Amino acid sequence: MSALLWLLIPLCTGISASVWAWSTGRRNPSPPDHDTWQDLDRYQRLQAAMSGTVRH
Predict the structure, then answer these.
(1) Gyration radius (Cα) of the chain, Å
(2) pTM summary value
């Protein structure tokens, strides 16, 4: 019987993690980001600055 009680620990952990994940989920997601090209340009400039080269 004590071996079966040890199975309650992962079961309770899984259930509580599921409840926590469901309760912290975003109810109203934000609209999609439409500035993809601007983000890509910003990323490339950051990457160039980190590598020490400058691209225009």
Answers:
(1) 23
(2) 0.41
Cβ proximity of 22 and 14 under 8 Å? no
Burial (CB count <10 Å: 0-12, 13-18, 19+), residue 7? exposed
What are the tens digits of pLDDT across the range 11-43? 999 999 888 888 877 555 566 666 778 888 989
- In whole angstroms, what separates CA 52 from the centre of its chain? 30
Phi, psi dihedral angles at 6 (to 5 degrees): -65, -25
| Confidence (pLDDT) at 55 | 60
Contact call for residues 48 and 55 (beta carbons, < 8 A): yes
**Chain-centre distance for alpha carbon 5:** 33
